[in-house]
Design goal:
The chain is α+β, with helices and mostly antiparallel strands. The chain has a single domain, classed as Umud Fragment, subunit A (Ribbon), CATH 2.10.109.10. Strands 1, 2, 3, 4, 5, 6, 7 and 8 form an eight-stranded antiparallel beta sheet that branches. It is globular, with a radius of gyration of 16 Å. It starts with a helix and ends with a helix.
Length: 152
C-alpha cells in the first residue's frame, strides 16, 4: 500500500470494518513478520477494550506501527513488539486505529487471532522471560538470514 492509500484508510474505513495491509519489519516476530504476512485489521472505537491485542497505531503522517497492547491506563497505552525487548513510547488511546483480527500467511492460509492455536502460541511466547525471548529472537533472525541468503 502506498502512503496515500494508508493515510486515507482512516477516512474511508468505517468502525468495525476490516482492511488488509502487508507486514513490513521484524518487530512482531515470531508470530508476524518476514514481509510475507498480511494482517487483517479491524477499525476500533475508543471505548473498545484492546489490552493484550495486537493493535495498529498512527505514529505520524505515513507512519503506522503494529505492536501488542501491554497496558491501558487513563487513556495512555503502552505497547511492545513481540520481537522486541523494549517498550514503545506510551501513546494516547486515540492514536490506535485498529486491532488485528487475522493473518494471511504467504501460503494464502488465513489464521484467526482469536483461534485456540493462535492464543496458545501467543501465551507460550509471551510467558517466556525477556532474556529467553532475546536469545530465541537472535536464533530466528540468524536462521532467517541463512535461509534468505541460501535462496539467492
Amino acid at each position: 500500500m502506498g502512503n496515500c492509500a494508508i493515510d486515507r484508510f482512516e477516512e474511508t474505513v468505517e468502525y468495525g470494518e476490516h482492511f488488509r495491509i502487508r507486514v513490513d519489519g521484524l518487530s512482531m516476530l515470531p508470530l508476524l513478520g518476514y514481509g510475507e504476512d498480511t494482517i487483517i485489521v479491524r477499525r476500533t472505537r475508543i471505548d473498545e477494550p484492546i489490552e493484550g491485542r495486537i493493535a495498529m497505531y498512527r505514529l505520524g503522517p505515513h507512519h503506522y506501527i503494529t505492536h501488542r497492547v501491554v497496558c491501558v491506563r487513563n487513556g495512555i497505552v503502552t505497547l511492545l513488539g513481540d520481537g522486541r525487548i523494549t517498550y514503545d513510547e506510551p501513546i494516547k488511546r486515540e492514536m490506535i486505529v485498529g486491532v488485528v483480527d487475522g493473518v494471511i500467511r504467504k501460503s494464502g492460509r488465513m489464521v484467526s487471532c482469536t483461534s485456540r492455536l493462535w492464543r496458545l502460541r501467543e501465551r507460550i511466547w509471551l510467558m517466556q522471560p525477556m532474556i529467553m525471548r532475546r536469545y530465541s529472537l537472535a536464533l530466528i533472525r540468524r536462521w532467517r538470514r541463512l535461509t534468505t541468503n541460501a535462496k539467492e
